[in-house]
Amino acid sequence: MKRLLIWMFSGLLCCMACGKGDAAPDVPGPGGPGPGAEGPKPPATVADCKKCIVLAEQLQSRVAIADVDSKQIFWEWKPEQSNIKTQHLAWFTNTSDAKPVYDGKYLLVTASGGGVALVRISDKKTVFYAYAGGNTHSAELLPDGNIVSASSTGNFMTVFRVDTTKAAEETYSKNFPLSFGHNVVWDHKNQVLWSAADHQLLTFTYNFNCTDPILTQKDVIEIPGKDAHDLFPVYGKNALWLTNTTNVYTYSLDTKKLEQANVLQVNIKSVSSADGLPTILIRPKTSWWTDEVIDEKGNTVFYQSGLKIYKARWYVKNTFSYPAGDGMKQCK
After folding, report:
1. Model's pTM, two decimal places?
2. Residues linked to residue 45 through DSSP beta bridges, in sequence order
3. Topology of domain 51-314, CATH
4. Do 314 and 60 form a contact (C-beta atoms < 8 A)?
5. Cα angle at 84 between 81 and 85, to 5 degrees?
6. Residue 14 three-state SS
């Protein structure tokens, strides 16, 4: 009996050892780190971002900020969770653009529903918003604190007098013609507003008059193709990215030359660059959306299945348009 018990106990130990040896190793799978492993965590705050992307995301009509290293969205602004009035929520259907402004502490947001908003990142408060209408595609800060937006339906720009004490319905605004209005970029060095309007690259001067703001067309530069879509500063250079249905270009303000960029071409909705980071592109997979941000060669930079991303911008400071340390202003 004693020998039988010893034999059974030895067999049990052997089985336990064999079971342990046959178990699958604890390794990461295709979805991320395996059990017990911890992947990178997103930054504690947006201000701590090193590799973050601002997304105009239309599945939920929101602005989202994604951290590339952790592959997570860790900040979002939704109009229905903000101080936007209920009767104005439709203005912010289908977020069309979001730009970091005022030293990276705010986002300038537009939506196809016609809304324009200035959002403080730290507490997600909408400090100013108004209605442009006409399928608003993008907006820009003017040096005195006013805002200009571009709308494609109706072909116009709208200049808003930014006064945070006024209700949205009471905001002063004025429209100016702009063919195929999809983009506006302020040029701090030359003190002009740029816009790629269908097949022309235009500049406008601004009168810096708070009570009667006026934009006046100045230069007209013919560009190849049609339906110019995105216009955005090339990071660290005196140049602009420009996209249309067939090409991606850079326009050098120093040489006055438009050149095809060394990136993927055809139907690029947005392009953004940063120091030491890949140039990122949005190329739709379905209609005008994608769930993936890619680099200039088509490699995935950020992906989350099911998203409807319309544009993507690196979260970096834009010194082409705004002076360093620029704080929020209101036109007085």
Report:
1. 0.88
2. none
3. Methylamine Dehydrogenase; Chain H (2.130.10)
4. no
5. 115
6. helix
